[in-house]
Structure prediction request, 344 residues.
Amino acid sequence: MLQESEWAAAQRAQRVMPSAASRDEIRYRILNRMRADEPEELLRLKNGLLARRARIDPKYFYDTAGSALFSDICAQPEYYLTRTEARIFSDHRSEIVWHLPRGAQWIDLGCGDGAKSQPWIVTVRPRRYLGLDIAPEALERALQQIGTRFPAVECAGVVCDFSRLLPIEDIVRERPAAPPVLFYPGSSLGNFSTAQAFALLKSFRKTVGSRGCLLIGVDLVKDARILQAAYDDAQGVTAAFNRNVLRVVNRLLDADFDPRKFRHHAHYDKRAARVEMRLRSIVEHRVRIGSDERPFRVGESILTEYSHKYTVSGFGQLLRNAGFARRRIWTDAAGWFGVFLASP
Ligand code: AVJ
Prediction:
């Protein structure tokens, strides 16, 4: 076990690749702290698929095709989350910014192409922009665009999976005078179980230190029909997004899943306050997963995503328990989505 983690550390160290953007001489640094291609991560993915109740971690949705499909989801009329959050941001930006520390490090958690951060950078004028994402192409685009548009802002990126812990303590500490503002929009925290979400919030709290803060968007509990429609749009974009994860798995595990043999299914479990997405086998068949094989009965499903919904008071409590003493919230008029600002 010890050897394994030493190997992983060595791999990580080797993959630190200082990179400079080409033509425009915009310089930025990208560190690779990815674990997805490490043996233990792949084994975890495989074991999930071989388990009696098959499952895939939703972080595997976001290959190039999956990231593009997710952007398409955000443009669907049923998927209110992105639009509603954007509206809260634009309606309350100046008030929110008023509460943020000056000369900050803007830390964009799951930055994608960085588009959500740009209007904030205009107003906040941070000392540094630090983008984190699991998708290297999107991250590179984020740094290229932000670096070009804001030459005075230092730009850096970390390719990583921060689902268990933020792997950036050392990088944040390079700028001790710049308080970290953690930006975690889009209700991404909803993918985690309450226990996982709590652990991650505690990790955020640690990074925030004494002068930083966390700006986080969270989808709120609402009518089941609205939630179910949001995760099962009429155009079938969410269905395509869900099935695409099987192509990702095929590549990572040398498997032969046929996405056409699975149907998209989304259900809101009111008691657990979460949308559950599954892929249901349409026919009885067997799938090869590397050197293993897995049978699927008709109707047997793979769990691909939980998307937890919170109440304003429930999430406030979670933040408090994670060590954030001061909390503010902004919502839309219908109370569908919440933007929380949490500080020590
Ligand atoms: C990116 C995790 C916020 O749970 O709403 C969208 C992903 N899944 N449609 C969500 C998603 C299906 C999304 N998050």
Q: What stands out?
A: Residues 1-23 have pLDDT under 50 and may be disordered.
